[in-house]
Design brief:
By secondary structure, the chain is α+β, with helices and mostly antiparallel strands. It has eleven helices and six strands. α7 crosses α8. The two termini are 26 Å apart. The model has no long low-confidence stretch (mean pLDDT 92).
Length: 281
C-alpha cells in the first residue's frame, strides 16, 4: 500500500465525485491516478498533494467530457449518484459541504465541463488559479473568467442560508406523511409554487422521463404514485451531507431527496435506478 497516495485518497475522491456526479466513475478516475502515481519519479514531485489533485482533476475533466455524450443517450432524466456523506471526502468548510449537496450537484449539470471543473476546484477546494489552469489548459486569467461565469449560472439557484439539518429532515418527514396519507392540501402547503419533481429510472425501472413542474402538477403526480405503490418500508439515510429516505414499494426501491428553500420544498429528486444505490449506504 502506498501511504502517500492513500493519505490523499479522500481528497481525490471528493474532487472526482463533485466533478462527475458519480462515485462509480470517481473511483475509476482515482484508480487511474494511482497507476500514474506508481510510475512517477517521486523525487521530481515537490508537493504530492498538489500533484495528485492535478492528475485526478485532469482525468475527471476528460471523463466528464465523454460522460456528457453518454448522458445525452441516457433513458429519461439523469440524476447524480447519491453518496453516503462519510464516503464523499473532506467536509471541513461550508464550500465543501455546499458543493456536495445533491441540489448543487444537480445544478452543476448545467455547466460546461470546464466551468464545472473550475467551479469545483476553486470554490470547494480553493485550488490556485495557476494550478487550475494546468487542469483545463487555459490561462489563469481565463480560469478566473470561467469561474465568474460558472458562479453566475449557479448563484440564483443556490439559496443562502441553507436550512438546518433538523428543518430539512422535518420537512422531508412531513412531505412523506402527506404524500402517503393522500393529504393534497397538506402536501401543497409544503411545496413551493415552482417546485420540480425529477425521477431517474435509467431505463431499469418505471419512472417519469421528464421533470414535472409546478405545485398542482407535482402534488397530483406524487399522490398518484403513492396511491398506486404503497410504501412497505422506509429507512433514513445520510447522503450528500443531508437527510434522505430510502423507500421500498411494490414497484421497487427508491431514494428520495429534497431541495429546501425558504422553508418550502423547491425540488424533489427520486432516484429509482438500482445501479445508483451502491454508494448511498
Amino acid at each position: 500500500m502506498d501511504d502517500v497516495f492513500e493519505g490523499q485518497r479522500p481528497l481525490l475522491l471528493g474532487i472526482a465525485y463533485r466533478m462527475l456526479g458519480s462515485m462509480w466513475d470517481a473511483e475509476d478516475v482515482v484508480q487511474e491516478a494511482y497507476l500514474r502515481w506508481a510510475g512517477t519519479d517521486r523525487e521530481a514531485v515537490r508537493d504530492p498533494r498538489a500533484f495528485l489533485a492535478t492528475v485526478v482533476s485532469r482525468l475527471a475533466l476528460d471523463q466528464l467530457r465523454s460522460a456528457r455524450v453518454t448522458r445525452e443517450a441516457y433513458r429519461g432524466e439523469w440524476l447524480p449518484e447519491p453518496v453516503a456523506t462519510d464516503a464523499a471526502g473532506p467536509l471541513d468548510t461550508a464550500e465543501l459541504r455546499d458543493s456536495l449537496s445533491y441540489a448543487t450537484l444537480h445544478m452543476m449539470e448545467r455547466l460546461t465541463p470546464p466551468e464545472r471543473a473550475v467551479f469545483v476546484l476553486r470554490d470547494a477546494f480553493e485550488m490556485p488559479y495557476e494550478q487550475i489552469s494546468e487542469v483545463v489548459g487555459a490561462s489563469a486569467a481565463t480560469c478566473r473568467q470561467i469561474h465568474r461565469r460558472a458562479v453566475g449560472h449557479l448563484t440564483a439557484a443556490r439559496p443562502r442560508p441553507r436550512p438546518s439539518r433538523e428543518e430539512h429532515e422535518r420537512l422531508l418527514a412531513r412531505f412523506l406523511e402527506a404524500a402517503a396519507g393522500g393529504d393534497l392540501a397538506g402536501l401543497k402547503d409544503l411545496l413551493s409554487a415552482d417546485v420540480t419533481v425529477w425521477s431517474d429510472g435509467g431505463g431499469k425501472v418505471s419512472a417519469g422521463t421528464r421533470p414535472v413542474l409546478g405545485r398542482d402538477k407535482a402534488a397530483a403526480l406524487l399522490l398518484g404514485v403513492t396511491s398506486k405503490y404503497a410504501f412497505t418500508a422506509q429507512r433514513w439515510l445520510e447522503v450528500n451531507g443531508e437527510p434522505a429516505l430510502r423507500l421500498t414499494a411494490r414497484g421497487g426501491d427508491q431514494i428520495v431527496l429534497i431541495d429546501v428553500r425558504d422553508g418550502l420544498i423547491h425540488a424533489v429528486f427520486a432516484v429509482l435506478n438500482p445501479d445508483k444505490f451502491r454508494y448511498a449506504e
